[in-house]
């Protein structure tokens, strides 16, 4: 499918939808996220996704109208178009960042300090018991 055909489909979705009644919401029920939307909202969001797929701008960021998300727990501000297939994208997303590494080092250091305090406390308690006897 070429870009002109995709644009034609997106234009049809928009022409058959009423922006004034469109609603798209992202709902969070106990960490279970889902989209709650009416037909106009789904059609307009689909059109935005289609436009983003043919976007040739250098920034590869496509804005979304926040009016559609009124009352929603989460709002989508933009769509970021990235290059690559799913395997490549997931490989780069799963790499640990600096904060993860820093957190592991911090927790390890805290564990070592705690172990030292426990050993010193036990030694001091035994010494105090021996001196008391």
Low-pLDDT stretches are none
Oligomer: single chain
State the helicity in percent bands: 40-55%
* C-alpha Rg (nearest Å): 27 Å
Distance between the termini: 90 Å
Secondary-structure element series? HEEHEEHH
Number of helices: 4
**Overall geometry:** elongated
Number of strands: 4
Structural class: alpha+beta
How many domains is the backbone divided into? 2
Q: Tell me about the largest β-sheet.
A: 2 strands, antiparallel
Mean pLDDT: 79
The strand line-up of the biggest sheet is 1-2
The proportion of strand residues reads 5-15%
Description:
The protein has 133 residues and is an alpha+beta fold. 53% of the residues lie in helices and 14% in strands. It has helices at residues 3-15, 39-53, 86-93, 98-132; strands at 24-29, 32-37, 61-63, 78-80. The protein has a two-stranded antiparallel ribbon. Strands 3-4 form a two-stranded antiparallel sheet. Helix 1 runs antiparallel to helix 2. The protein is elongated, with a radius of gyration of 27 Å. The mean pLDDT is 79.
Task: Describe the secondary-structure layout.
Blueprint: H1 3-15, E1 24-29, E2 32-37, H2 39-53, E3 61-63, E4 78-80, H3 86-93, H4 98-132
Antiparallel strand pairs: 1-2, 3-4
For the structure shown, list the relevant keywords.
alpha+beta; two-stranded antiparallel sheet; two-stranded antiparallel ribbon
Provide a short characterization of the protein structure.
The chain is α+β, with helices and mostly antiparallel strands. Helix content is 53%, strand content 14%.
């Amino acid at each position: 499918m070429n870009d002109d055909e995709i644009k034609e489909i997106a234009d049809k979705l928009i022409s058959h939808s009423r922006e004034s009644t469109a609603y798209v919401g992202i709902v969070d029920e106990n960490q279970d996220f889902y989209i709650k939307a009416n037909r106009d909202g789904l059609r307009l969001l689909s059109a935005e996704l289609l436009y983003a797929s043919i976007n040739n701008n250098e920034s590869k960021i496509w804005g979304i109208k926040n009016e559609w998300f009124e009352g929603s727990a989460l709002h989508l501000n933009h769509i970021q178009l990235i290059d690559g297939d799913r395997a490549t994208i997931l490989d780069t997303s799963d790499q640990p960042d600096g904060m993860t590494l820093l957190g592991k080092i911090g927790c390890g250091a805290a564990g070592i300090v705690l172990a030292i305090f426990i050993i010193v406390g036990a030694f001091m308690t035994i010494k105090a018991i021996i001196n008391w006897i």
